[in-house]
Structures are given as C-alpha cells and as structure tokens.
Specification:
- This protein is of the alpha/beta class.
- Helix 4 links the parallel strand 3 and strand 4.
C-alpha cells in the first residue's frame, strides 16, 4: 500500500560479519549433538562470533559505512537511521542513536525496531514509508545482531 507516496529504492548496500567462526562440529564438542542433527533441524552450518569488546553498533557502523559509500552519500546526508536489533548495546538507550553518533549522522532521526527475526523486514518497510515522504531523502536501514553473547 504505497498510496500517494513517491517511489523509493535501495541505492547502497553494506554487510559485515565478525571474523570468528563457530562450526557445528565446534558446537558438538560443547553439547551432546552433531553437525548432521543441527544442519537437518536448522540448516545452519556455522555461526559468527563477535569478540567480547564488539557491540551491535560496531557491526552496524561497518555495514552502514559500506552502504553510504556505495550510495555516494556522507553522514550529513542521512535524514533517518533505523536499526533493527534484538541485541542492543545497552538496555535503555537506542542502539540506532549510538550508531548515529559513531557515524556522525548529526541531523538524522534515529530509532530501533525490536522485532527479533521480523525486525529487518519491518525496519525496511518503515524506512521505505519515511523515504517516500518530504524531508527524508536518505533513510539508512540496518539490521545488526550480536546473538553470540546471549544464546547458548
């Protein structure tokens, strides 16, 4: 339902995952399971593990910089930053606001969407709706998680 909104599109993409990998075989050494069982039940072969000093916003910043570079925009061009996460840097402050500060997007509105797996899709939808309205020419949407700290 786009209604009278202007058409919008994706002009830059970015992605980042931490370099440390935990395979199903690594996991099987910790719990009573196997690579075959995990793969059959989840389709997962490996997961990325963030270092202890790496926050969700750190991952988001790297991906955002890539997307901004590809789009040919700088921090001052970003009108809004929407960050989908269920693993925020801190409990009571927006990780989008922290990411906004780290990027230097001083004029951007910034907020989190916390909807677990559906968060990225919801953030993209909200971002598209804002991008189709006056005053929001460049909306930066990012999904970032550091689940390696909270899942066992």
């Amino acid at each position: 339902m786009r209604g009278n909104m202007a058409p919008v599109g994706i002009v830059g993409l970015g992605a980042y995952v931490p370099p440390d990998v935990m395979t199903n075989d690594d996991w099987a050494e910790i719990v009573d399971t196997s690579d075959e069982w995990i793969t059959a039940k989840t389709g997962i072969k490996e997961r990325r593990i963030a270092a202890e000093d790496v926050c969700t916003s750190d991952l988001a910043v790297i991906a955002c910089k890539q997307a901004m570079d590809e789009a040919g925009i700088g921090p001052g061009d970003v009108d809004m930053l929407i960050l989908a996460t269920s693993s925020p840097d801190v409990p009571l402050s927006s990780t989008a606001g922290i990411t906004q500060h780290k990027l230097g997007c001083t004029k951007a509105a910034a907020f989190d969407i916390n909807a677990v797996c559906a968060g990225w899709v919801q953030a993209l939808d909200v971002g598209a709706r804002f991008a189709g309205t006056p005053g929001y020419d460049n909306v930066l949407v990012v999904g970032a998680e550091v689940y390696s700290r909270i899942l066992n």
